[in-house]
Amino acid sequence: MTRHRTRLRAVGIAAVALTAAGLMIPAAAVADTGGATAPTSGPAYEATAKRLMTDDPQVEAVAKDGSGHLVLYTSVDRDGLEGSAKAFVERTSNIIVKNVGEISATAADDVVGGAGYLASDNGPTASLCSVGYAAWSPTGTPAVISAGHCTKDGQYATSYLTTPTGDPAGGGDPNNGTVRVSAPLGTLAFSQYGGAGNSSGNDGDPSSVDISVIDVTDPALHLRPAITDWTTPNDLSLSTTPVRAVGSARVNVAASKSGRTTGNTSGVVTSVEGWAQVSGRWVYGFAVEASGRIGKEGDSGGAVYQGTTAVGLTSGTNASGTFLWGADLQAGLARTGGYTVALAIDAPVMTKPADGGTVTAGGTISGTAAAGTTVTVTPVGAPPFSLPVGAGGTWSFTAPDAPGVFRFSLRASKGFDTSTTVDTTVNVVDAAPVIVSPADGSRVDQPVSSIAGTGHSGAVVTLGGDASGTATVAADGTWSIPSALGAGRYSITAVQTRSGASSPAATSTFTVSPPVPTISGITDGASFPVATAPSGFAGTGVAGAVLDASLNGTSVGTTTVAADGSWSLVLATPLAAGTYRLVVTQTVNGVSSAASLGFSAVAATAPAGGPTGIPASTRTALALTGASDPVPVASLAALLLLGGAGSIALRRARRRQV
Question: Among 121, 214, 334, 564, which residue's beta carbon has the most beta carbons within 10 A?
């Protein structure tokens, strides 16, 4: 038997296990008969949900959870089910039954909303509801989104904001005795509660919705894409959650709702893609369950969100307020003819350089912004230009070519949504000029007669450090400044100035070597008899240079090069026979250069012909014993002078001759 009901009913898909959610509603009864499996998708599921909702008034809503169960929200416990619902539960294995009591509309004639508003026909009755979200009309004019049932099927076409401190959530009378109107809000632009034309609608039909749109008429109002948490009733905008996206409710995920009666409350989305009858109208949406009260009359139209994503509007609750039916936001928006939820867009951030930092002329200015947005750059005194932000969330543009202070603002936008405007300043300077010659770290063998490099055409380059002078950079970007840098170690700087602004300094540290000294009178590889080996060395060098000579690595003397460029050293001792490596090093201003050569000193060769070393050409042949030649008198006399043994030796020789 079918009974007519004027209270809210739901046919939908959404459920989470009660133990996981920690909910304090009556425990779910799960069919365990091992029977048939109820469909949870497609036409069969939709037909099953419709039959259950139509045939048995004890079934308040039907949805599916994330684990393959069909969830029946009922006004009685499982054991109290009657008729077709009882039979269906007993023969089906994947059924979860949850007793949530009767579900009724949270806003009838007097419904209040998230930021609190009153809708009326300027007659004796009105609705108190909650603003769901700031929105845009198809042409970009401001609007707000709320529930369709707040408009009494379009009769309440005029809306007024209420004072938050007079609303129950802001500390006002729970029975709405302190409601006060604070400002005109707007006029009704669209309303649908149930099916098209505010008909009862149908389950299985996503176009059965609960949504209204109010075009804002008060130009003084500033609508923000944010949801209040009702902790600051004197100014609801002081504590909010930004709305950054519109999406579908996610099952088994926490959700919050904001409304003028119970403030900001939370629960868990336990089923999605379902339908419920809210005071006799079909509404496509999802279920939210909580351990305590999550909603009450006057919360209708308020935002239901997960994180920073808008997913629904408060449509109905049960008597205890622990169960809330959320009207699917995207399904409702699709019926409005092009209205969209306003989204919070973060302001762009400049990262290179930081605000107030320095960038080279023609360099890159870059930063971050939300992907998919457009960053508008507005230079002071120049036309604005736009930069697309890619998937990586970055943007960049080229800095001005002229040095100086560059002031500009940044703003991100997407559709009709825009961020706050950020004013920024960077100091544009020319890059340091480049010192090409002498190159940094180089060593050159000749005096430096000029410093040369590259820079910005037209800039004036000024040298500092160990050199001075200025030059204007030529059209081809080159410059050169005369110098006279002899031997030594040097560090020079170069700065280019344009339009009164100076660049950072370029630096080149280099060494100029003195010329190599010369060595006179000796050629590399020469050989000398010891008697005529060099007794000293001489040559030319840099006047005033300190000169050191070494042989085989040992210093043999130090001198100073004379004013005429000559030098000489005398060895303290003659050279012995041997091979030598002569190195002559001269040092000027702490920088040295050296000349090197090798030579040898050769000892005299002993004469051939005997140990005496007397040349053979000057010797007289001695007579052999027994020879017939007489001994010269002079020789004999010399021998006689030997006396003693010499005379004896002579006598013995004579005896042997006899």
Answer: 214
Three-state secondary structure call for residue 52: helix
At 534, list the tokens.
């060099």
Give a yes or no: residue 339 inside a domain.
no
Task: Quickly count helices (H) and strands (E) in the chain.
Answer: 6, 48
Instruction: Give the domain extent around 294.
Output: 228-268+285-329
Angle, to 10 degrees, between the axis of helix 633-640 and the axis of helix 645-657?
130
Report the candidate in 226, 113, 198 with the shortest Cα–Cα distance to residue 160: 113
Distances (CA, A) of 169 to 117, 230, 449: 13, 7, 85
Same domain, 138 and 206: yes
- Tell me the CATH number at 315: 2.40.10.10
Residue 185 lies in a domain: yes
pLDDT in tens, 194-217: 999 999 998 888 999 999 999 999
Same domain, 219 and 122: yes
Q: Measured between alpha carbons, how far is 114 from 258 in angstroms, rounded to an integer?
A: 5
Contacts of 554 (CB under 8 A, 6+ apart): none
Cα 12 to Cα 32: distance, rounded to the nearest angstrom: 22
Look up the CATH number of the domain holding residue 463: 2.60.40.10
Q: What is the pLDDT of residues 111-124, one digit of tens each?
A: 233 789 999 988 78
Q: What does the alpha-carbon distance between residue 622 and residue 241 come to, in Å, rounded to a whole number? A: 135
pTM of the model: 0.60
In this structure, the answer to whether residues 121 and 219 fall within a common structural domain is yes
Q: Is the dihedral of CA 76, 79, 82, 88 positive or negative?
A: positive
Is 305 contained in some domain?
yes
